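Journal club prep — side note

Before the paper discussion, L.F. wants everyone to see what a predicted structure for a comparable chain looks like in token form. Sequence:
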Amino acid sequence: MAAVEALTAAVDQLIALFNAKAMDLPDGFFDRKTQFVLNGAPFETLLGQPPTDPLVLMLARGPAGYRFAVKALQHAVPDAKIERGELAHDGDPFKLKTRLWLSGTLRGTGEAVNTVVELTLRLAADAHVAVAETAVDPSVLSKIRESRLRP
């Protein structure tokens, strides 16, 4: 139970840091190999280069991958805020699920974003996040991508 409480505190700390526009991370939350998956696609496959390229892996995984993705999101939705729902286990002690609510305004259009993000964290034996999987409505994700390209 203490591990679940510690993980919950780390998730809440990460959300608070995101909402404060800070790029800091809770100690030990991600390691350099943590993989990020968006709508079933590993982040490194979305960068337009071979996913096995060492530079791509360096940018797409671990704390650098988190910061790279968050900066892109915060550029597209400058006032982005996240709130979370209840954390749930489905019997697997190495998997945690929750819903996040992402809200804000798209850059350049003023259009409001208010969407649910399904988050699944797969933990390594030492309790750091090995894989962070997110699922976002593809139409909302498309609008965020378009907004990211605006100056």
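L.F.'s comment for the group: The CA atoms of residues 84 and 100 lie 4 Å apart. Keep this in mind when we get to the figures.
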